[in-house]
């Protein structure tokens, strides 16, 4: 076996192809371990992707903000059709509400005028403009967790940060660990193969 390795190394000048052939012949078990580690890493990654598809990637607060904007869009539609802002949010749910000349269709279902916690949105028209806010999770208006239309500071967002997803975190750590093991095994295999080829060449030169 050593003589054959020496012949291969000398014939190919220690080329990468000769080293690879010798690695497959002499370290088949190690290569199988590497293939197994790579397969496990791929499986963990696929499981992680499935978890991402099952769970929303963002905090639910983005959905709450989107619902608030949809109500604001209905208010602006009312204003565009009727020339005035609705006096109260429930005007959005009635056909032909507002001035006599305004014959609009219902712009919002009643359930859309309440936030995710069942509280009515706080709406205040003033001088052709309006403010709109949700009382938030505590259901108390004008507190820190209020979700406010147009407030780009988004100071409420940290209060709605979802809890740590330990499943997804463990999958990420497992993937990193498997990748490290894979690279370590591969480098070890290449090192041993190169050393074996070098020793074969050295023995050949010493014997000649």
UniProtKB/TrEMBL annotation:
Keywords: Membrane, Transmembrane, Transmembrane helix. InterPro entries: Pilin-like, T2SS_protein-GspG_C. Coiled coil: none annotated. Gene3D superfamilies: Glycoprotein, Type 4 Pilin (3.30.700.10). Residues 65-140 form the Type II secretion system protein GspG C-terminal domain. It holds the Pfam family T2SSG. The chain crosses the membrane at residues 34-53, 169-191. This is Type II secretion system protein GspG. It comes from Tahibacter harae. The lineage of its organism: Bacteria, Pseudomonadati, Pseudomonadota, Gammaproteobacteria, Lysobacterales.
């Amino acid at each position: 076996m050593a003589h054959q390795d020496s012949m291969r190394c000398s014939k190919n000048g220690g080329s990468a192809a000769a080293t690879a052939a010798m690695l497959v012949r002499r370290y088949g078990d190690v290569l199988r371990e590497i293939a197994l580690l790579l397969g496990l890493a791929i499986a963990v990654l696929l499981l992680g992707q499935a978890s991402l598809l099952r769970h929303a990637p963002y905090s639910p607060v983005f959905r709450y903000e989107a619902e608030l904007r949809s109500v604001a869009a209905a208010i602006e539609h009312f204003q565009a059709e009727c020339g005035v802002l609705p006096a109260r949010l429930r005007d959005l749910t009635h056909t032909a509400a507002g001035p006599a000349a305004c014959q609009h269709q219902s712009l919002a279902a009643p359930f859309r005028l309440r936030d995710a916690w069942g509280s009515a949105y706080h709406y205040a028209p003033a001088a052709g403009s309006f403010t709109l806010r949700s009382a938030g999770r505590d259901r108390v208006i004008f507190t820190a967790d209020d979700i406010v239309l147009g407030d780009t500071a988004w100071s409420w967002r940290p209060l709605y940060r979802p809890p740590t997803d330990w499943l997804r975190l463990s999958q990420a750590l497992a993937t990193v660990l498997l990748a490290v093991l894979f690279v370590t095994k591969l480098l070890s295999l290449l090192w041993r193969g190169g050393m074996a080829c070098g020793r074969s060449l050295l023995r050949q030169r010493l014997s000649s």
